[in-house]
Structure formats: C-alpha cells, structure tokens
Amino acid sequence: MTTRRMSARLAGIALLAAAVTYVVPATPASAACGQGWSDRSSRAAVVTADGVRYRTGPHTSCTAYGQVNRGVTAYLDCATRGDTVNGIAVWWHARFSTGGSGFISGAYLNPWVQYTTENC
pLDDT digits over 8-52, tens only? Predict the structure, then answer.
C-alpha cells in the first residue's frame, strides 16, 4: 500500500471515529433501587393521592415498601432524580406520619418541593 493510500485510509478512519457519538448508558433502575439517602432537609409535605407507593429507590420499577394515602404528612429527607411521573422527575426520600419511609415521587406531594440542595 502506498503512503498516499495509507494516509487516505487513516484519515477516513479518523473521520469515522470522530463521527461516532459515545453514549453513557443511564444507571439501570435496579442499581439505584438500594440508593442511599441522608436527612438534609427539614421540610414537610402532604401526600395528594390515595394508594401512593413509596419505594426502595427513585424508580417505578423499584420494590415498593408500602403505600400511603391522601393527607399523610411526608417528612422530607433529601431529593434525587428518577423516573418521570406526571412530568416530574424529582423523588424525595421521606418518613411518613403513619410510619415507614422510602422514596416517593414529587408528583404526589403538596406543596411540590423543588429539587434543591437537599440532594441524596
């Protein structure tokens, strides 16, 4: 192979390599279902629907610890991002006035508390 052909081939390979977009896969839900949390927040909210599941992590595929109903107070520990529920991807780790704790979608909390510095 001539030097000119070799250079053209290497240039083509370099161009192809530059065109490839590397995508970092999202963390699988199963990996985030045992997610840690900390009690950085002193906020509270009220659950806005009946039968809302609280889970081991911020994904609808995570195991549910239990469920809470409308009017239950959620003492918010920290926030993280997870599956989008009703257009909201913020999940809070919360302790509930009726007992139990776990991750609950921000879509079911009032007032809806913005994702802030209280990251898990």
Answer: 444 443 333 332 222 223 344 444 787 777 776 678 999 999 999
Residue 32 buriedness (CB in 10 A; 0-12 / 13-18 / 19+): buried
Distances in whole angstroms, Cα of residue 33 to Cα of each of 57, 79, 100, 110: 4, 14, 16, 24
Task: Give the pTM.
Answer: 0.69
Other C-beta atoms within 10 Å of 66: how many? Answer: 14
Quick one: three-class SS letters along the chain? CCHHHHHHHHHHHHHHHHHCCCCCCCCCHHHHCCCCCCCCCCCEEEECCCCEEEECCCCCCCCEEEEECCCCEEEEEEEEEEEEECCEEEEEEEEECCCCEEEEEHHHEECCCCCCCCEC
Task: Respond yes or no on whether the N-terminal peptide bond of residue 28 is cis (omega within 30° of 0).
Answer: no
